[in-house]
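Researcher: Next entry in the queue.
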Amino acid sequence: MIYNEKKITLKDGRTAILRAPKIEDAAPMVQYLKDTAGETEFIMRYPEEVTMTAEREAGFFEHLAYSPFDMMIVCEVEGKLAGNCQINFGNKIKTRHRASVAIGLTKEFWNLGIGTAMFEEMIAVARNREGVRHIDLEFIEGNSRARALYEKMGFRIIAVKPEAIMLRDGTLLNEYLMRLVL
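Model: Structure for this entry, 182 residues:
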């Protein structure tokens, strides 16, 4: 699915562009994924676990362009990838009523309104898709910033996976499932 470009004004007055990823974003996206994984314990992988190549990422972007079930938005600020958000729709008869969403932002761009803007776009896409009844997402215990954003967007906790995440130091954290009913 292709997302049509949209400009937004950030809380600091700068302009950001929400758009579909382009092939030339592949190498910067791989670096972005490594960077975000190193900035917080709340991303599902560590930087060294980001093993995809730019070529593989470019192939993924091409898949997104033609997929009727998947869409990604990237946020560009002053030529730099600031964040991304992806939605996936169920592609089977038994799951086509639901979607899942994930988001990431580099720390430099936290608290500027990018997450809210990307979520508003993803929720609008889901609401306009026939038969979709809810959107799910997951977050890791302690990620109060993300939880606040998700709750602001209308998501509510519906389940907990106890000790689902183990950090390098052995700390066990719960993972929470949240849902937005459309």
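Model: The mean pLDDT is 96.
Researcher: Noted, moving on.
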